Amino acid sequence: MTSPPHTPRTRSPSPDFLTSLLFPPSPTSRTASDGLQYGPVAVRSAPRSGAAQTKLANMVFNAGLVAAELIERGGWELGGERVLELGAGTGLPSLLASALTDTPKSILITDYPDETILDTLKLNVSRNASVARLPVKVEGLEWGTDASKLLEAHGPFTTLITSDLLWYLDGHSALLSSLLALLHRSPSARILLTAGDYTPVQGIDSFFASAAQAGLEYRVVQLEDEWLGEMGVVFTGEREQDVAEQEAGLTQDMRDLLSIRKRKVWAWELRWGENVVGRREVIGEGWKGA
Q: Is 191 in a helix, a strand, or coil?
């Protein structure tokens, strides 16, 4: 078996799962359903009840913020790609991609087919329609189920985005099944994956071992310790202070906090191995697996 795929950055695991995955550590009594402003994009989390709570779709994750930062600064280039996001929650990475100059060819945001979860996603898409440079669509998707109708209506998908989906170990088989079914079989197609450092390393290793057996190869994305995004990031509410923070852009205090949160995230890219798509002209460094 190949060496463990988790990033070699040295740090201690977060001791409290729910506390560490929720961004930010609340300085006030705000709940997880408060909003987030990232540059031109504003999102809100689903209400803390029902499937939204059991599926943790009512939270903004550190891993989703780091995915957005990578997209903002071009670490993950999505221009011209046909993008699908799985388990999207607020849909922040996809919505930010829709607002950038180098836009994807298409974007489909998916999550568990629950009315509250999907209504929240649709509301986020609607509130950002004025800054989006292309139509963004929303569909329900239960991992492991037949995706043929979704592919027929919206595919093929050349880039899949998954943020903080590996913590649910019992869902790995269904998640991988959907990834394999949805990812276009071409050399350039890829999966962009982030996870919080509370995700059990043994589970991560098991997931990547299964992915390799299924024909995927992967590499670690080396994340810097510091937040490199330049867009303003702030939680939004109804206080006058929130408006002032948004107008000020990215404050140093927020950059420092985002840097702390970024150090709690791992990232990878996955793609089809040569045994699936044939020999590559350029292999690249650091790829393991199939």
A: strand
Residue scoring higher pLDDT (80 or 51): 80
Question: Distance between CA 241 and CA 239 in Å, rounded?
Answer: 5
Relative orientation angle of helices 92-99 and 62-72, to the nearest 10 degrees:
20
Please give the angle made by the CA atoms of 151, 113 and 85, to the nearest 5 degrees: 50
Task: Give the position of tokens 């197609």.
Answer: 189
Task: Please count the CA atoms within 13 angstroms of the CA of 78 that sit on its side-chain side.
Answer: 33
Using an 8 Å Cβ cutoff, are 44 and 33 in contact?
A: yes
Helix, strand, or coil here: 2? coil
At 203, list the tokens.
């589970």
Cβ neighbours of residue 162 closer than 8 Å, sequence gap 6 or more: 85, 86, 87, 175, 179, 191, 192, 193, 194
Angle between helices 62-72 and 252-262 (to 10 degrees): 110
Q: Return the bridge partners of 139, or none.
A: 110
Residues 6+ apart with CB under 8 A from 145: 178
C-alpha distances out from residue 201 to 3, 191, 195, 204, Å: 12, 19, 11, 5
pLDDT of residue 241: 47
Tokens of 216: 């995927």
Which of 261, 260, 287, 257 has the alpha carbon at shortest distance from 272? 287
pLDDT at 25: 37
Q: Cβ atoms within 10 A of the Cβ of 264, count? A: 20
Euclidean distance between the first and the last CA atom of the chain, given in angstroms as a whole number:
11
Q: Which two tokens stand for residue 273?
A: 């191995």
Determine the Cα–Cα distance for residues 121 and 133; give it in Å rounded to an integer.
Answer: 18
What is the average per-residue pLDDT within 250-279?
A: 92
- Burial readout 213-245 (b: 16 or more C-beta within 10 A, e: otherwise): ebbbbbbbbebeeebebebbbbbbeeeeebeeb
39: left (phi over 0), alpha (psi -120 to 50) or beta: left
Q: Note the pTM of the prediction, 2 decimals.
A: 0.86
